[in-house]
Specification:
The complex is a heterodimer.
Chain A (H helix, E strand, L loop, with lengths): L2 H12 L2 H22 L1 H4 L3 H28 L1
Helix pairs in contact in A: 1-4, 2-4
Chain B lengths: L18 E2 L2 E2 L4 H20 L9 H20 L8 H18 L11 H23 L17 H13 L1 H34 L1 H37 L4
Antiparallel strand pairs in B: 1-2
Helix pairs in contact in B: 1-2, 1-3, 2-3, 3-7, 4-6, 4-7, 6-7
Classes of the chains: A mainly alpha, B mainly alpha.
Chain lengths: ~80, ~240
């Protein structure tokens, strides 16, 4: 296989990691909503934790994007 | 017209080339936008705190809002011992926020979308937090890597994992900010390109997406500055209040 084509395929494969980030963000927001519906008075206090969890989950997906960029541009 | 979505991240020199001992320290558009960010922060806080009234003006209200926001965040996550580090975390938050927000303006440059900028910030935080930890607790700061209540068989494994996770902090902190800003801006440019290539007939759908994405990116710009600051607080909390 040519190197260019292999690079493109590798970068595309690295983007699959975003699926995991999607699942993670969905779980975080879904569980926050479930908890907030059960106990709305405690929901406001946990909002910073929600944002923190969202950012942490999103970052793992973006690491995949960084891998894709390294494959495409650094090699 | 630049059709490459990565074109917006290119750094180019403004003015003459300056070299000191073989190191290129010329003034670039990145440095220009850092200076602009600092100018914006300075102007905002200068006019916000110029007239200190009991009934605040709008600018004073905004400045106080930012102050209270960060002060509450620090006391919630790192406790009262972290109060002396308020100026550092406040300036860190304001700098990242200003850089992210100024990057949202069309034709501007996002300083935080370059990993070298965020990595230097994160490395500075990492080294500072480690130094503070060793200064406050001495060698017993190393207990951070040995959590209590773990079975003795698992302890070697857990310690290695804790050390690796501690060392990967600057990487994850910097890559999170850099990748978020870069991915968001690339996505906006790609959708902007769709508007042109689909023309008058089909370009309205990506145009709507572009508008929605701009809103999302402003949210992300704030959120990432907040996360950067709150993670710094959490790291400081580890160094100041050793729990294990």
């Amino acid at each position: 296989m040519e190197l260019e084509a292999a690079k493109m395929i590798g970068a595309g494969l690295a983007a699959i990691s975003l699926a995991g980030a999607g699942v993670g963000i969905g779980i975080i927001f879904g569980n926050y909503l479930t908890g907030a519906m059960r106990n709305p008075s405690a929901a406001q206090k946990q909002f910073p934790n929600l944002l923190l969890g969202f950012a942490l989950a999103e970052a793992t997906g973006l690491f995949g994007l960084v891998v894709a960029l390294i494959i495409l541009f650094a090699f | 017209m630049a059709t490459n979505p990565m074109h917006q991240f290119s750094v180019h020199k403004i003015g003459p080339e300056i070299k000191i001992a073989g190191v290129d320290i010329s003034f670039t558009n990145a440095s220009l936008f850092m200076v602009i960010s600092l100018g914006v922060i300075f102007t905002f806080l200068f006019f916000g705190t110029r007239e200190k009234k009991l009934i605040p003006s709008k600018m004073q209200l905004l400045a106080e809002m930012f102050y209270n926001f960060i002060a509450k965040m620090i006391s919630d996550t790192a406790g009262t011992k972290a109060k002396p580090y308020f100026p550092f975390i406040f300036s860190l938050f304001m700098f990242v926020l200003a850089c992210n927000m100024i990057g949202m303006l069309p034709y501007s440059f996002t300083v935080t979308s370059h990993i070298i900028v965020t990595l230097i910030l994160a490395l500075f935080i990492f080294i500072a937090v480690t130094t503070i930890g060793f200064m406050k607790h001495g060698l017993s700061y190393l207990k951070l890597f040995v959590p209590s209540g773990v079975p003795a068989i698992l302890l070697p494994l857990i310690t290695v994992i804790e050390i690796i996770s501690y060392l990967s902090r600057p990487v994850s902190l910097s890559v999170r900010l850099f990748a978020n800003m870069m991915a968001g801006h690339t996505m906006m440019k790609v959708f902007g390109g769709f508007v042109i290539s689909l023309g008058l007939l089909g370009g309205w759908l990506p145009l709507g997406f572009s508008v929605a994405l701009t809103g999302l990116e402003i949210l992300v710009a704030f959120l990432q500055a907040y996360v950067f600051a709150i993670l710094t607080c959490i790291y400081l909390n580890d160094a100041l209040n050793l729990h294990h």
